[in-house]
Structure formats: C-alpha cells, structure tokens
Amino acid sequence: MPASEYSKDTDRTTDVQTQDETPFSDIIKDHPLILKGLSDCEFINASPIQVAALPTIIAGNDTIVEAKNGTGKTLTFVIPTLIKLKLEQNHLQTIILAPTREIAVQIQQCFKKVGQHLPGLKCEYFIGGTPVDVDKQKAKCCQIAVGSPGRIKHLINDHVLKCSEVKSFILDEVDRLFTDKSFTKDVRLIDAKLPKLKQTIVVSASIDKNDMSVFDEFMKEYIMVKGAEEDMNALQDPSKFLLGIKQYVACVKAVSTNIILLPAKNVRLLNILQNLPYTQCIVFTNYMTRVEAVCNMLRDHNYKADYIRGDQDQSIRLKLVDRLTSFKSKILVATDLIARGIDSSNVDLVINMDCPNDWATYLHRIGRAGRFGNKGWIIFFL
Length: 382
Hints:
By secondary structure, the chain is α/β, with parallel strands linked by helices. 38% of the residues lie in helices and 17% in strands.
C-alpha cells in the first residue's frame, strides 16, 4: 500500500471520499505514534469504509468488512491491531491469514510502515517457499504473524508459533479462503488452536451471501460493515465497480484454435499499448505457459515487461511484485496470482487477454486499477 496511493494531489472519485473529510486524528486521537506513522505514509484522511469500520473494530466487535477494492480495507484492521497491541509483551497476539504469499508480505509491510514509531513492534510474515529455519528465528518474540494458511498451520502444529495468548484472528480476502477447500480446512484447524475468547475480523471486496453461514463457525455474533450503499460490490450489482475505472471490450478476429488465437491477441495487445496512454499496465492471462511467451513478445517490441506466475521461486515473485509497486516495471504479465490485494497506485490499465473463470476473479482483476479514487482503463479481449 504505497503512500502515493492515498496522497497524490489529484481529483478522486466519490467512492473513497467522505462528504466531510474525516482525518484519522478524529478517530484515533489518543494514539499519537500511530498517527505519526500514518502521517509519514501521507495517510491523512480516512476513506468511507475506514470511517465506518474503525470504531466498530477498535471497540472489539467481531466484524465483517466488505468494500470495493482499492478503498482502504487493509487499514481497517492494521490500525486497530496496532492500537490494541501490548508492546511490552513479546508473545504472539494477532494472526492474520491471506490467500497468497504476496498479499501476506504486503500486509506485513503495511504494519511496519504504519507502526514504524512503535517501540519494540515485531510483525513478521510466514509463507511457503521460504526456509522453515528462517521462520523459526522470526517467530521468536513475534507479536503479529501474517501468513498463508498452510505455513501458519505448520508452525502452530510444530509449536513454533505459540498461540495461547492470541487476542485477534483476521482473515483477509476471506471469500478466497473459503472457496478453496484446502484453505478452508487449514483455517478451521488454525481457529481450533486459538483461544475461544478472541476478536475475529474478516475482510473482502466480494463476499457471497452463500458463504455467510460459514462465518457462524468462527463468530457467534458479528457486525457487518459495508461501504456506502452505492459502493456495494459487483457480485450484487454489476454497475457498482470502482467509479474511476472505465471498461471496454476489444474484439479479436474469430479463429478455429487457441494456437492461432494467441498471435491475434498479441497483435491486438500491441495495438492497444501503442495507442492508449498509460502509466503502468497489468496484462492478465489464464495460463502459466502463456505469461512468459507474451512477456517475451513485448520485450521483442522494446517494451519493459516482466512476468509472474505460480511456479516461480518465491524470492523471484516477491522481487517482481516489488518491481511493480516501486514503478520499476512498466508492464507486468500475470496469472491470477496477483489478481487480489496487490497495491500499485500507478496501475491505470488492466488488460484481460483471457476471460476469467468467475465474476469474483474479474472483480479483483479490474480492481488493480483505479485504486483509491484514481482513474483506470479496463480492456477485455473477446
């Protein structure tokens, strides 16, 4: 969550602005060190979902937070967690689960930035693809653990992460955690190891009504906080996308096979990149085998492009995400590995070379652009 995403001096869409600007200092005035961290990151005014959710979560209620991508959901649980953290106690107090390793790392970085003035803060990420021995060292005195369900479960079962004093359990991108059976199983196993008396917070942009019954397993009573009525997610009303994005269809000539279709799509992609002004672009495809080919094609035409997919080494994937968010990469060709949660305020063009498999994935893909009130273009190949 780069500071520029919240602080660029530019007109923003109304889905990230309150009618009367509400500074964070009005909500958490008794926490000057956290306010200083927010200010250093140039997070000054709260978004509508932050105004709605922060008092409820700070009060200790189990909470479901549902709001559009790019409207500031991460801070709805980062700020309360830091407020409640007992810095003098060097044991695990909060566990946060995320469906991808990249999102987990990004959340941990947000905690470190906002909490940079809190003495003794120790927040670590624990993800697959990294050495367990390193995790064992990081777990010592860890107060906030952010990670993927599989690795967190592993470390709890091995008594590396001791969770008897955990006070809050947070599930980010909860719809993804509960639609993947292996994730759901791990979440249940982790929850069973945690104290019964704890606060549970679940967060997403696309919570399906059919999943609501699952939440009853983890929360006996909860408050549901949503963005303003006009900000409901696109699963309920397809017109309720981020207000700053415009969506277009790019027609590709019909052909008999995918082998012939890819070159046709490549030609269409080059035409768009040559004629549409953009700052940073993500190109999504459904196939791991295709991302490298498309990236190489773009490089052959002198575009500064990278590609990311699930079979790459974890350290490489983290470097690629960093290149995107630090604006070192102009174009990133990707699978749905980064369709969720990745924040790069400069992305203003998203191209779907292949049709996503479901509405939720489409919603999250296009949410990589137009974040926090910025403008963006979405192009869908058909």
